[in-house]
C-alpha cells in the first residue's frame, strides 16, 4: 500500500506544542509511507486540495491525516479523499489536537505522542479495506405511537406532507393529557377549543389511519422497513357500525364504572364514550364493570343499539403494518402521590392531584365547571396548592424538575380565584421556575393581580380536622411554622414516565434513562432522534416539557421523518459486522448479545446453521465481535487485526525493541 | 531526525494505552482537550465504537507487549449508545481484572472507568490518577518481571 501522511498545524493550535515537521519527517520511516508533509490548515479548501493532489501525484492508496479529533473532521476528510478517487474508508485520522497538543505544554512529550499516534494510524490503515454501502428502498409510511398533542401534531404534519400515517393510541380516544385540561398557561386558552379541531383533523385526514384502543405488540425490521404488530384490544363494540349516538350509555345500568377521563372523580357507565369530543367517537365496554361480561345477564345495550354494533364475543386481534419510520409520542403519567403518606393523597377525598383539579374546573368535568369539594360537594373557601409533589425530591428517587407544575399551579390559582372570587389560595413552593415566553409575567399576575399567597417552604403534614384539612408547613423566608385550614388541597403532582414505557422501549430497541424517559441521540444536537435509526421522539416521553415544547418536538419529528423520506433509498453504513461462514461454528452467541436483533440464522446448503448479519439493522457496536469464540464475526473497519496491529506497533514497537 | 531509540532511554514517559468508546469517553477526552485541561502525556488512545467491542485479549496483548498500563473507558452504565455494550464490557473486564495476578501482572496496571462526553474534568482526573498509579508502580517488566510478580503474589 502507498500511504500519504498529512500533519496539520491547525494554525498554532497544534504547531505551538507539537513539532509537526518532525512528526511528518518521522512518518516517512514507517512502512508503506511514501509521502509525508505538514500543512497549516488541512481541513481548509486548499488543504484538502493539497491532499487530493498528493493522492494523484504519488499514487496514494491510503491517507492518514494527523489533525483534530475524528469526531470533528473525519467526515470532511473522508469526502476529500473520496473526491480524489480513493475509497472513503482508506483514510485514518490521528487525533493530535484534543488528545495531544491541547493537553500539555511539553513540546517534546507532545511530539513523541503525536509520532506514536500517527504510527498507530498508519498501522491500522495498512489493514483497511475499501468498504461500500448499499442502497435499500424506503417504505414511505410512518407510525405514530401515541395520540396526545405531540403525536397529533407529528401525524398531521406528516399527513399534510403527503405521507401515509398509522397512528396507534392506547386509550379509546386520542387527545391524551391535554384533552383533560381546562385551560392552558400562560394565555388561559380553552384547552379543548385548541385541541379539538386538531383531533377532528386527525379523524378526517385521509392519510391518517387511526388504531385507537390498540397497543404495539412487536416491532421488527429497520429504518425504512419496519414491521409492526398492532394489538387491537377488544372493545366489544363493532366500531365500523357504531355511530357514537350514545343511546347505550344512557341506558347502561352499570353506572359505577371507573371514569378514567375524569381521573376517578366521577363514575361512568360500563359502556361509554370517554367525553363528547372523543375521536373516534365510538362506544367501548369496560369488561371490568359490564354486568353481562361479569355475570352474563343484562345485554341492555345490545337490545337498544340502533345499528346492532354490540359484539360480546369480540376478542383481541393483531394486525401487521409496514412502515419506514416510527415517531414515539407516548407521553407521561403523573407521579404516584401516595408515596407521600404525610399529604394524605388517595386517603382524604379532598386532597387531589393537579390533573383532578383540571377536571373539577372543566365545564365538561364532574361538576360542570363549578369547583366543589369531592367529599361533600361544598364550595371550598381556602385552597392550598403544594408544589413539587414528586419532583426535585431525591428521597423518592425523582430528583428532576417536572417543569410544568409551577406554571400549572399559577394557572389553577387564577382559575380558582376566577371561579370563586372570595376564596383564598395558598401555594407552598420550593422555587418558582417560569422560564418560558410570558411565563414569569404570568406567575407575577397570579401573585400580584390575583392576591395569591405564595409561601416558600415545604409542607410537613396534612391532617383532617372536622370538615377541614389542616396543612402544616414552614415558611422558610420568615423562618416560621405555618398552619392553614384548607377546604381543598391540590398536590402539584410531577411528571413520570408513562406506564409501559420501558416495555415499549425494549420492543423499539431504544434506550431510556433511570426514570423511564426515552433517551435522545444527543441531548443538544440530536434531540428528536434515538440511537435506533428511523425511530424519532416527540413530547414528554423524552422528558418533562410543556405543550408548546411538545408540539414543537412533534413537528420536529415529522420534519425528520419527511427528510428521511425525501429520498427513495437509504445508504447503509458499511462499518458493520461481517460473518466469515467458514469460521462460524454456529454457536449463536452473537445472536444472543446483539442489542439490535441484527443477527439471524442462515442455513447453508449442507444444512449447517451459520450467523448472518442484516446490513441495515446492524449499528456497528462490535459486541458480537468481542463475543464470538472463533472470531468469525468481525466488525468492518475495526477488526481484531486492526486493533491488534495498533496495539502491537505501539507497545511492541521499537520502544522496547 | 529524531532518534526514537535514544529517546526511549532518556524519556520519563511510561506507556499507557487507552481504549475509549467513540460516543462517551472519546468525546470526554476531546472535551478535556477543548477545555485545555492539563493531563499527563503518556496515554495513547485507541478509538473503539463501544466498550462492548473490548476483547479482553486487547488488554492482555498490550500488557504482554510491554505497556505499563491499560485504561478502558466507556459510557456510564445505562448510558450506552448501543443500549447494553458497557454492561457486557463490565462483566468481561471485571473477570479479566481478577485474572491478571495469575499472569504476574499487578491489577492496578489495568483500570476501567466510565466518563461521559461532557465530563472533561472527570477525564482529566481519571487520566491523572491513572498515570500517577502507573508511575508509582514503575515500568512493566513483562510477565516475567519480578516486581510485579511479587506484588501479584501479595494479592493471593
Give the key terms:
heterodimer; A: 657 residues; alpha/beta; Rossmann fold; FAD/NAD(P)-binding domain; 5 domains; five-stranded parallel β-sheet; 18 helices; 34 strands; B: 156 residues; 4 strands
Strand order of the largest sheet of chain A: 10-7-6-18-29
What is the mean predicted local confidence, pLDDT of chain B? 86
- Going by CATH, the architecture of chain B would be 3-Layer(aba) Sandwich
Fraction of residues in H or I helices of chain A: 25-40%
What's the overall geometry of chain A?
globular
How much strand of chain B? 5-15%
Give structural notes.
The complex is a heterodimer of chains A (657) and B (156). With 657 residues, chain A is α/β, with parallel strands linked by helices. Chain A has 5 domains: 3-131, 3-Layer(aba) Sandwich (Rossmann fold), CATH 3.40.50; 141-233 and 316-331 and 498-565, FAD/NAD(P)-binding domain (3-Layer(bba) Sandwich); 247-304, no CATH class; 333-496, FAD/NAD(P)-binding domain, CATH 3.50.50; 577-636, Alpha-Beta Plaits. Chain A contains 18 helices and 34 strands. Chain A has a 5-stranded parallel beta sheet. In chain A, strands 20-27-21-22-23 form a 5-stranded parallel beta sheet. In chain A, helix 1 packs parallel to helix 5 and helix 2 (45-57) packs across helix 3. By secondary structure, chain B is of the alpha/beta class. Chain B has a single domain (13-153), classed as Rossmann fold. Chain B has helices at residues 4-10, 25-34, 56-65, 85-99, 120-137, 146-153; strands spanning 16-21, 43-48, 69-74, 110-114. In chain B, helix 4 (85-99) links the parallel strand 3 (69-74) and strand 4. In chain B, helix 2 (25-34) packs across helix 5. The longest helix of chain B has 18 residues, at 120-137. Chain B is globular, with a radius of gyration of 16 Å. The N and C termini of chain B lie far apart (48 Å). In chain B, 54% of the residues are buried. Classes of the chains: A alpha/beta (657), B alpha/beta (156). The interface between A and B is large, with 58 and 53 residues.
Amino acid at each position: 500500500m502507498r500511504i500519504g501522511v498529512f500533519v496539520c498545524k491547525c494554525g498554532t493550535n497544534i504547531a505551538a506544542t507539537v513539532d509537526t515537521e518532525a512528526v511528518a519527517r518521522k512518518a516517512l520511516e514507517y512502512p508503506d509511507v511514501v509521502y509525508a508533509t505538514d500543512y497549516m490548515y488541512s481541513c481548509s479548501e486548499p488543504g484538502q486540495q493539497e491532499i487530493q493532489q498528493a493522492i494523484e501525484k504519488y499514487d496514494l492508496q491510503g491517507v492518514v491525516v494527523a489533525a483534530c479529533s475524528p469526531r470533528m473532521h473525519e467526515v470532511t476528510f473522508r469526502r476529500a479523499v473520496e473526491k480524489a478517487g480513493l475509497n472513503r474508508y482508506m483514510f485514518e485520522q490521528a487525533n493530535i489536537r484534543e488528545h495531544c497538543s491541547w493537553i500539555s505544554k511539553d513540546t517534546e512529550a507532545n511530539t513523541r505522542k503525536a509520532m506514536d499516534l500517527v504510527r498507530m494510524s498508519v498501522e491500522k490503515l495498512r489493514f483497511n479495506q475499501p468498504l461500500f454501502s448499499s442502497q435499500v428502498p424506503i417504505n414511505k409510511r410512518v407510525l405514530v405511537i401515541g395520540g396526545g398533542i405531540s403525536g397529533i401534531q407529528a401525524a398531521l404534519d406528516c399527513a399534510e406532507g403527503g405521507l401515509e400515517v398509522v397512528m396507534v393510541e392506547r386509550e379509546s380516544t386520542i387527545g391524551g393529557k391535554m384533552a383533560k385540561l381546562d385551560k392552558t398557561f400562560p394565555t388561559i386558552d380553552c384547552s379543548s377549543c385548541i385541541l379539538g379541531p386538531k383531533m377532528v383533523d386527525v379523524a378526517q385526514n385521509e392519510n391518517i389511519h387511526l388504531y385507537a384502543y390498540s397497543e404495539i405488540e412487536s416491532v421488527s425490521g429497520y429504518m425504512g422497513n419496519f414491521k409492526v404488530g398492532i394489538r387491537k384490544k377488544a372493545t366489544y363494540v363493532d366500531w365500523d357500525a357504531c355511530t357514537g349516538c350514545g343511546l347505550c350509555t344512557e341506558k347502561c345500568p352499570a353506572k359505577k364504572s371507573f371514569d378514567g377521563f375524569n381521573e376517578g372523580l366521577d363514575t361512568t357507565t360500563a359502556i361509554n364514550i370517554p367525553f363528547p369530543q372523543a375521536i373516534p367517537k365510538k362506544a367501548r365496554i369496560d369488561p371490568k364493570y359490564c354486568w353481562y361480561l361479569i355475570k352474563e345477564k343484562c345485554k341492555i345495550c345490545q337490545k337498544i343499539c340502533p345499528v346492532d354494533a354490540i359484539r360480546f364475543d369480540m376478542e383481541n386481534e393483531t394486525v401487521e403494518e409496514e412502515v419506514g419510520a416510527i415517531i414515539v409520542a407516548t407521553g407521561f403519567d403523573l407521579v404516584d402521590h401516595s408515596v407521600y403518606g404525610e399529604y394524605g393523597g388517595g386517603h382524604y377525598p379532598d386532597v387531589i392531584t393537579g390533573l383532578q383539579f383540571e377536571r373539577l374546573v372543566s365545564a365538561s368535568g364532574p361538576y360542570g365547571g363549578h369547583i366543589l369539594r369531592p367529599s361533600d360537594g361544598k364550595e371550598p373557601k381556602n385552597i392550598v396548592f403544594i408544589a413539587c409533589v414528586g419532583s426535585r425530591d431525591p428521597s423518592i428517587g425523582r430528583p428532576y424538575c417536572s417543569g410544568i407544575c409551577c406554571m400549572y399551579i399559577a394557572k389553577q390559582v387564577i382559575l380558582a380565584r376566577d371561579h370563586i372570587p372570595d376564596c383564598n389560595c395558598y401555594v407552598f413552593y420550593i422555587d418558582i421556575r417560569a422560564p418560558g415566553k410570558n411565563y414569569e409575567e404570568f406567575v407575577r399576575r397570579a401573585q400580584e393581580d390575583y392576591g395569591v399567597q405564595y409561601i416558600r417552604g415545604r409542607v410537613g403534614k396534612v391532617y383532617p380536622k372536622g370538615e377541614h384539612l389542616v396543612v402544616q408547613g414552614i415558611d422558610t423566608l420568615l423562618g416560621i411554622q405555618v398552619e392553614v385550614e384548607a377546604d381543598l388541597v391540590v398536590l402539584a403532582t410531577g411528571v413520570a414516565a408513562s406506564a409501559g414505557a420501558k416495555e415499549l422501549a425494549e420492543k423499539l430497541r431504544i434506550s431510556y434513562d433511570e426514570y423511564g424517559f426515552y433517551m435522545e441521540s444527543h441531548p443538544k444536537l440530536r434531540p428528536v432522534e434515538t440511537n435506533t435509526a428511523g425511530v424519532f421522539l416527540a413530547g414528554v416521553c423524552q422528558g418533562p416539557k410543556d405543550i408548546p415544547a411538545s408540539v414543537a418536538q412533534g413537528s420536529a419529528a415529522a420534519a425528520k421523518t419527511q427528510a428521511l423520506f425525501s429520498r427513495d433509498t437509504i445508504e447503509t453504513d458499511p462499518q458493520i459486522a461481517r460473518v466469515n461462514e467458514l469460521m462460524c461454528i454456529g454457536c449463536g452467541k452473537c445472536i444472543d448479545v446483539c442489542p439490535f436483533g441484527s443477527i439471524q440464522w442462515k442455513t447453508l446448503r449442507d444444512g449447517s446453521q451459520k450467523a448472518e448479519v442484516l446490513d441495515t439493522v446492524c449499528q456497528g457496536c462490535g459486541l458480537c465481535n468481542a463475543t464470538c469464540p472463533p472470531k468469525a464475526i468481525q466488525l468492518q473497519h475495526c477488526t481484531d487485526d486492526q486493533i491488534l496491529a495498533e496495539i502491537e506497533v505501539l507497545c511492541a514497537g521499537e520502544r522496547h525493541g | 531526525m529524531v532518534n526514537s531509540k535514544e529517546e526511549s532511554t532518556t524519556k520519563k514517559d511510561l506507556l499507557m494505552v487507552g481504549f475509549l468508546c467513540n460516543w462517551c469517553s472519546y468525546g470526554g477526552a476531546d472535551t478535556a482537550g477543548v477545555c485545555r485541561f492539563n493531563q499527563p502525556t503518556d496515554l495513547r488512545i485507541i478509538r473503539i465504537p463501544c466498550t462492548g467491542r473490548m476483547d479482553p485479549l486487547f488488554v492482555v496483548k498490550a500488557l504482554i507487549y510491554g505497556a505499563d498500563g491499560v485504561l478502558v473507558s466507556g459510557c456510564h452504565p445505562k448510558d450506552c449508545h448501543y443500549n447494553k455494550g458497557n454492561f457486557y464490557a463490565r462483566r468481561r473486564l471485571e473477570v479479566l481484572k481478577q485474572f491478571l495476578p495469575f499472569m504476574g501482572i499487578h491489577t492496578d496496571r489495568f483500570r476501567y472507568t466510565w466518563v461521559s462526553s461532557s465530563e472533561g474534568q472527570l477525564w482529566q482526573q481519571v487520566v491523572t490518577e491513572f498515570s500517577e498509579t502507573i508511575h508509582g508502580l514503575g515500568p512493566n517488566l513483562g510477565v516475567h518481571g519480578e516486581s510485579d510478580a511479587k506484588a501479584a503474589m501479595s494479592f493471593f
